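User: Teach me something about this protein's shape.
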Amino acid sequence: MASLILLILTVTCMFSLYPSIALDPKISLPRSENEDLELHSSGMSVTNNTHLQNYIVHVDLPYGKADSLPFHELESLYYSFLPSTIAYAQRRTRMVHCYRHVLSGFAARLTPEEVESMAKKDGFVSAAPEKVYSLHSSRSPTFLGLQQNTGLWGDSNQGRGMIIGVLDTGIALNHPSFSDNGVPPPPARWRGRCDLPSTTCNNKLIGARTFFAGDTPEDKNGHGSHVAGIAAGNFVSGANVFGQATGTASGIAPLAHLAIYKVCSGPCPGATILAGMDAAIGDGVDLISISLGTPSTPFYNSELAIGTFSAIQRGIFVSCSAGNRGPTTASLSNEYPWALTVGASTIDRNIRATAVLGNGVELNGESLSQPNNFPSTLLPLVYLGRTGNQQAAWCFANAFNNVNVRGMVVLCDDGGNIGRVAKGKNVRNAGGAAMILVNKEINGDSIPAEAHVLPATLVSYRDGTTIKTYINTTPLPQATISFRGTILGVSGAPEVTSFSSRGPNQASPGILKPDIIGPGRNILAAWPFSVDGTTTGATFNIISGTSMACPHLSGTAALLKTMHPSWSPAAIKSAIMTTSTLSNKDGNDITNQNKQQANNYELGAGQVIPSMANDPGLVYDIQPDDYIRYLCGLGYTNQQVTIIARRPISCSPGFAIPEAQLNYPSFTIRLTSFPQSYTRTVTNVGDAISSYTVTIRMPSQVNVVVTPNSLNFTRVNQQLTYSVTFSRAVTTPAIIHGYLTWASSRHAVRSQMSVTLA
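Assistant: First, the predicted structure itself:
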């Protein structure tokens, strides 16, 4: 009987008590950045008892104690913290997760009164309600310069031997992107398991677990399969969606292994995310990819910040999506400096649908649906919003009452809390022949390709204004749509997408975020079910979001870790950031959705170039304990830093460092009347004997002096330190962006600088 009770309690600590929420497979239209899986509306837990919430409880254990205790002893210890008022029979339903690696503590369903009672116990540190997180949601490897058997793909064996842990909605069963063709067995350090049929688990998909009671790791949503496919999907020829974007699909690290942790099933509960991360660390993954987040929050109150810090302490690289709340400033998620925070950019592929006006003007838009029988003859063009009726401009269903649009092309404005595809349904139901959608002004030229229910195209806000001017100045306006299919080599890419969240960093203003941008708009990857209703082979989808950008960088980091197994997570991150580019494929500055030069708060260090990151010359390394000094410098209390560090910390004045003193590969400064100086230490990972000279590119409002102005190395792994002094040259408040570059005969190591003149 005692062993049976122990078994029950063990199962209780392994699985969340949330019900599995399966999405309707029929709801499978591609998602765009504005509709990208915002699956929650509050931070409250899902529970049948309105007085109970899931709390994350931190307790005081000696550092490493939770890792080393036998599980039944650790579990018994955690149970001892539950209030005595909870009946023994209820305890197994109250305990949600017991954590071993990510934090010292557990998750339990408690009332505020029970938490207050528990706080009186010796060893109690803190407890807070869990947060609920949202998901942030082919051609891209080629666009990033990766080609089979050559360059970084050839040198790194395409990520062979690396294990990427993906925390998301699960994995598509038996999808060819997750076949193990050419993939070797997992390395001996792998300690995980695969809770799927034996025919599904293989050398590619080596791990799959769920943290929802009564559920399986199968992906009923699509987001998790898409993310996993981008990071490490195997080669699949003939991949397409609606016959478009046809080619060979693959992940960035196609021969790496995948370990899947299903932590989202409807909502993404914080306690469950921690459980997935705890398992990933214990299983022996090399990298963790996280395409979900919440709005900005202090790090000691963020499950992701706490869990990812535990991961990097063990040498595990972590990449996170920046969020889809752009182009609003200060809209970031995942702002902590120990993870790579990834914004989204475009690739040079359009799925083109061109609006052709009666005056001969052609305006390029995009649509995933490409009917091959739509006539080229001009049709009447109507804009119901001409009268100033906003609902008519948004093409609400009631706007078509007593209005004849049969056989016409209808112009609709995006917005009004009605989806773009739903607008098309309203037009079709009213008898319209086609629809031209005008992007929101805030989204500018950032256009998602979507599957519409009638012939349609989405054009930029600027081009929409051109169409409206034509309608207003022409007695009988006409238009049609020319569907031109997949176009490669589109100029202007990469461009920062409108939805990609922007800095500055609210949680830590002295750290520049996002760190980097990568492909995130109209990305093709694996999907668990057909989106067109006709596909009989492999199923793929095209969706957008920083969720898609993040796994591009996870895969890139896997390639680099294969090549440089001794590099720390910070060194890999530095290599990615300092070798990125600020130029698009045409050689011009990367722009944002309004065709304006993108600044550091929009693109971070720039667009990733994987092959360049493989040979950075110099890296800015950071040890885990350096982050603890930085956390003290944020003004956190000893207890708040202890929660993250998992050991007692005393933030004495001599121990804490300012944010800008962290050895980060970029600089973010708030400058008042007095000059400020900070140091950086670089490690030589290039030629043993090499000399670097600094150049500074900064607008004249800020003076930047670097000392010394040259660095001379005599051996590999040698470290040298330089200082940077910032002073203001004007009294006018402003935000100034620039960069400094250390250049040798073979390398250019660039660090972005953002200075706020207060």
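Now, about its shape. Confidence is low (pLDDT under 50) at residues 1-49. The CA atoms of residues 58 and 678 lie 35 Å apart. If you'd like, I can walk through any region in more detail.
User: That's plenty for now, thanks!
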